[in-house]
Amino acid sequence: MPDTAFMSIIEHAPRAPLAGTKLQLNRTYGSPEDYAKAIEELRAAFPAEDVSTDPAVLEVHGRLQNYTKSFPHSVVVVPRSTEDVVRIVNISREYRMPIVAYGGATSVEGHFFGTDAKGICVDMAAMNKVLEIHEADSDLVCQPGAKWTDINAMLKEKGIPLFFPLDPGIGASIGGMISTGCSGTNAVKYGTAKGEWFLNATVVLPSGEVIKTRRRSRKCSAGFDTLRLFLGAEGTLGLVTEATLRLAPLLPTRVAVVQFPSVAHAVRASTAALNLGVNLQCIELLDALSMRALNAYNTGGTRAWPERDSLFIKIQGATPVFIDESARILRDVAERHGGTGFEFARTEAEAEELWSARKNAMHAGYAMFPGAQAFGTDVWLESSPTLKMLAHRLLSVPVSRLPELVTTIQKDVAAAGLNAPMIGHVGDGNLHAIVIYRDEEEEKAARSLVASMVKHALDLDGTCTGEHGVGLGKKKFLVEELGESTVELMKHIKQSVDPLNLFNPGKLYPD
């Protein structure tokens, strides 16, 4: 068929309306009597210890760590198999009772909060087993409650020289990692959850049907990739009950730290090193305020950190010769971009000390200010009597635009009279900014500042959420970032898969 004829068919083909329809997802759920019957059926279907309406249990399952405010559910149920999850979903559907998955509870966007309509919280804690290990294929199969830290510890204990390289918050579960499309400090080397680290998943749909997204083979071109529907869908399309994880070789590493005159110098150095092929596993930026916070946090320590914009770096390689050559190139690149005080850890203990400083940077930022607690989120909640909130904004832009983003944000922070330590996965353009405020006046300034941060990131062709997902805190920015038609397409997919809007309603999709 000639191209012109083909284009004529496309132009005149009927189209499902998207942007013009403003699809409204269902917000009508069961009555209190329906909920009571659902809970009665859950109690009949599961052991007594696996179904709870205890207010203390409901409160914990609807609250971020270290917060005083909770968004509780109506009931918490603990399944132990895919069949158990199907039973819960069928009861949810029969009585029009919303259903929300609960994993490691490390999410910072309110993904596992109870909804306005409350509903069923499905706590995956008991579904935490590694079911199969295929060392020759570098993969394993596990349940969604398994935690990445436990998986890596188990592989190490078994003497298997492989690991799962995605490293979000300590305690994050595999189901939550799929749900949010997470990443972490290893992303510069290994990418994110939306790469091919998840090969397959078993998913329970809102209809109660169970699907496998594909088989276990490393490559597959059988149709489009249905697994990607659930990666980043935040539990709104289905509940993952098993997953196949791709593993990577566990290679030796070497840890370094170096200071720079500015964030721009540090970013240019990291980009140059990556472009020269230095095998960087991690390259993390801590701004001068974060380094000052480390000194304030580590009052009993022996090390005083230079309070300058700094990079914490891990080099990875299969052989000492490879690591040494990468280290030489890295030092040269850093010095050419103004780097000073370049220091490699000489022992395992020193390497642990250096990397612990990076890992403690977030907590140090909190501890630097009286009344702060160790948490961060984009959901605005009251958290303590002395410090109302630490607003943790995670943005991502093309790497070359990161200095511009940081510089602009620093100016805005200074103009607002606030403090905002910044930490970045600089190798892939990710920036964590912790905006601190104490009273209503500072809260107003912080809200304005956070909104301007998002605008700056979007203006630089970036995103409002580099790795934490959307949840409650960022859905209002989704149309501006993705466009109205793209968001409407997402809502149409949601409507097709979950017409009753029972799975995690109120999250991800803009109201």
Automatic annotation (TrEMBL):
Could you tell me which residue ranges the FAD-binding PCMH-type domain spans? 68-250
Give the catalysed reaction(s), semicolon-separated.
(R)-lactate + 2 Fe(III)-[cytochrome c] = 2 Fe(II)-[cytochrome c] + pyruvate + 2 H(+)
Gene3D superfamilies, alphabetically?
Answer: 3.30.465.10, 3.30.70.2740, Vanillyl-alcohol Oxidase, Chain A, domain 4
Record GO cellular component, one term: mitochondrion
Tell me the PROSITE patterns matching this sequence. FAD_PCMH
* Top-level taxon: Eukaryota
Q: Which UniProt keywords apply?
A: FAD, Flavoprotein, Mitochondrion, Oxidoreductase, Transit peptide
Extract the GO molecular function terms from the UniProt entry. Answer: D-lactate dehydrogenase (cytochrome) activity; D-lactate dehydrogenase (NAD+) activity; FAD binding
The EC number(s) this enzyme carries: 1.1.2.4
Cofactors demanded by this protein: FAD
The protein's matches in Pfam families, at most eight in alphabetical order, are given as: FAD-oxidase_C, FAD_binding_4
Please give the family membership noted in the entry: Belongs to the FAD-binding oxidoreductase/transferase type 4 family.
Q: What is this protein called?
A: D-lactate dehydrogenase (cytochrome)
Q: Which organism is it from?
A: Phanerochaete sordida
